[in-house]
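**Fold in tokens:**
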Amino acid sequence: SPPGLLLLTSFLLHVEEGRASPTRLVCDNRLIQKYIGEAKDMEKRAGHCQALPTLSCPTVLPLVDFSLQQWKSKSNEIKRREILCDLALLVGAVAGAQGQVTQECGARQLSQLYQHANSFILLLQTFSWEAGPWEPGCSPRFMEQTHITSIFLTYRQLVQGKLRFFFHDLAKDLCK
């Protein structure tokens, strides 16, 4: 089963057990470390794919670097929305690249990345501190890239950075 499915399943199991918070995901630090490891592995495997094409149509990727001081001053809801915006842009970039990559190795890695990023989107949509439907309504900072490997690099940086810190911040509230 795809690892993204595991993420969603473990979350849903906790909800079904009557706990409204995804405590295992947030409170068990080993899980986010596992997702960071998977992001690194995908990036490495994509780098080993032979003859990955340069994208003829550049892909738009979010700039996922951030200042820790600024990050700490934001509410969890703002952080969640920012990560959702980054993930939505990343998923769009993967979908655009998938249309340009016919070679099996690269296509397989992109498909896996697409599943992982979508699972995080579904997960983050379940957290909400404000009522109402989710609307991206975002204008993330972005860059254009023609190298497929930069998509994997951006995903790893997002998981290792904002997502890891977000889970860490949630753990302070949920894991008492």
